[in-house]
GNAT family N-acetyltransferase
Amino acid sequence: MSLEVRPATADLWDDVRKVLQPKQSAHTCWCMAWRLSTGDYGRMTAQERGEHLRNLTEKADPPPGVLGFLDGDVAGWCNVAPRRQLDRLTSSKTITPVDDVPVWSVTCFVVRKEFRGKGVASGLLEGAVEHARANGAPAVEGYPVDPEGGRVNPTLAYVGTMDMFERAGFRRLRRTEAKSDKRHRWIMRRDLV
């Protein structure tokens, strides 16, 4: 598999929509849950969240995430940004900072159904790391779920799994109080400098 990973810029908005809103829904997250405070997120409609993300693709420097392409077709998305730009994460009581390093955070993966099982999420993670590196990040963190020897519900594995992060060179720092599919999530980090 040769996944081409590109920053999610305004010229790729149609591809962002194809991944994050494959059909109209009043519940579409648009990957804004970590970028907004809980209150702001809850008050916004799906359309407003989409407009907010579109604005980020147009104006944010660096872009708010990366897209992966297989044979020219968009296969998936990864939300990656400096932790300080992720309001809900900076105020989280369950995923607290380990230290003062200005890390970038990988918070979400979305892979289109027809591309699942092809290593897209792993390729997106590598692309997210390179995106962070190119924009001066000293380290990248993720907050994946520990499958604890079992299988994680795919809907709840949007944060990634520890195995995937370990294969990408991340190391375990600390178990958090956050859970996904009733299993603990860990803070994992890959140093870039």
